[in-house]
Amino acid sequence: MYSYRCCSLLLNLVFLVVISAKVVKNNVCTTFRGYGNIQNDQNCFYNPDLDSTPSQIAEGHGYALETHTTTTQDGYIISMFRLKRNSAQKKFGQPVILQHGIIVDGLSWMISGNNSLGFNLVSNGFDIWLPNFRGSTFSAKHINSTISDKDYWDFSFHELGIYDVPAFAEKISDVTKRSDIVYIGHSMGSTAGLIYASIKPEHARKYIKGFIFTAPVAFFRNVKGALRAALPFYILIKGLLAALKIYAIGTFPALQSFLTGLACGSYPSMLLCQMIYSFTTGLAIEQVRPDVLPIILKFYPTGTPVKSLIHYAQIIRANGRFQQYDYEIKEENMKKYKSALPPMYEIEKIKVPSHVFASKNDFLSDFDDSKLLYEHLTSAKGMHTYGLGHTDYLYGKDVNKLYKNIVDVIETNFIKNNVIK
Q1: Is pLDDT above 90 for 24?
Q2: CB contact set of 37 (below 8 Å; sequence gap of 6+)
Q3: Whole-number Å distance between alpha carbons of 33 and 183
Q4: Which of 24, 56, 118, 184 could be 52's S-S partner, Cβ–Cβ 3.0 to 4.6 Å?
Q5: Which GO BP terms sit in this record (predicted)?
Q6: What is d(CA 293, CA 105) in angstroms, rounded to the nearest whole number?
């Protein structure tokens, strides 16, 4: 009887293994052509990250993840991921914020596998924090409203800078008992950091040791590609979104399913999606990673207010004037700002040492615009140039040099031998 049970158990285990092997199917490919025969092409494989939670993604790459929450002064309940080398880690090095850009969240620093900046910095001994801006998947709560309410989405990246960033900094300082955070922002993460440090310079000097602005969006003067092409239709698009009562993007599951399924989930249609993507962010074709595209489409876009998109468009229409939100009604601007025009962000007031990372292939954060930002930053300490597209800082093939330079900037400029290796 005992031997029978053992044999039965063994057969059941074998059966489960066989079934599991059949269920696990290839879901990404290192070439676009591979997607045409994804289950048989030698360039295709199964990436568990595509079907995983943030904690599972971290664990799958040998790390651990904590989630911390805090509440902003205006009532948004926002979260942060803290990456750890392992769940038992007790000693931490230099605290570093990796602040995500528009239509993504903190997970964006983890979805390139071992090529992710988040994992790279943890392995170099830093204490990595990945905040999620309000409205995104992991920061979608408010003390009085929900994401279904129009009022919830009444914010732009201005509020991210004056509310979210200081709340993140204070929470990290409270947990770590340190006030020497290095802030690395990408795209809108840089925008919010600039707004924060210019409007609250003393708060920034108290909590932030140094800024690294990658692909910064501020003087939005020379934007190219799809965004420039859409600009003549600003009034039409804005009016249409208002008429349809669309206050945010990234909040429509049906659209997400369409993008990951019919539109961009199969070959050759995904080539068109990649062309549109490159035409929007920058033409560094050699940096494209076909194996990461399905993961990007799975998780993004996440919740982003239309008001942020309008705010960016206003800056472009104002010839790159880095200004606060324009209510486009003189009386409203006078009531809010005591001026017919919205005030500019006075980045000359930033007192924290800053480094700018720019690219000559970036359609959104144009190199000349980044150079202009650098020239206006009285606290600027260095400008670093690359050949990347806007999102290649996160998902590009050749990011090792970039990441090494980021580590060098932190270790050389912002800390003195206090990284836990």
Answers
A1: no
A2: 44
A3: 39
A4: 56
A5: lipid catabolic process
A6: 16
Least confident of 29-43, 174-188, 250-264: 250-264
Stretch (H or E) spanning 28: strand 28-29
Catalytic pick from 362, 366, 369, 392?
362
Q: Which two tokens stand for residue 292?
A: 């990461």
User: Does the annotation mark 148 as catalytic?
Assistant: no
In tens, the pLDDT along 122-153 reads 999 999 999 999 999 999 999 999 999 999 99
User: Tokens 């144009």 appear where?
Assistant: 366
Sequence letter at residue 312: Y
* Whole-angstrom distance, CA of residue 120 vs CA of residue 406: 10
Active-site residue flag, 362: yes
Q: Do the beta carbons of residue 245 and residue 387 sit within 8 Å?
A: no
- Name the residue type at position 294: P
The answer to whether the beta carbons of residues 339 and 329 sit under 8 Å apart is no
- Beta carbons within 8 Å of 245's beta carbon, 6+ residues apart: 150
CA distances from 123 to 93, 109, 144 (A): 11, 14, 40
Q: How far is CA 189 from the centre of its chain?
A: 7
Catalytic residue among 79, 187, 278, 354: 187
Taking the C-alpha atoms of residue 348 and residue 69, their distance in angstroms, rounded to an integer, is 32
Q: Beta-strand (E) ranges in 46-159?
A: 64-71, 76-84, 95-99, 127-132, 141-142
Active site residue 390: yes
Is the bond into 54 cis (omega within 30 degrees of 0)? no
Instruction: Quote the CA–CA distance of 93 and 91 in Å, as a whole number.
Output: 7
In 3-state terms, what secondary structure has residue 27?
Answer: coil
Beta strand 354-359 with 208-214: parallel, antiparallel or unpaired? Answer: parallel
Other C-beta atoms closer than 10 Å to the C-beta of 403 total 17
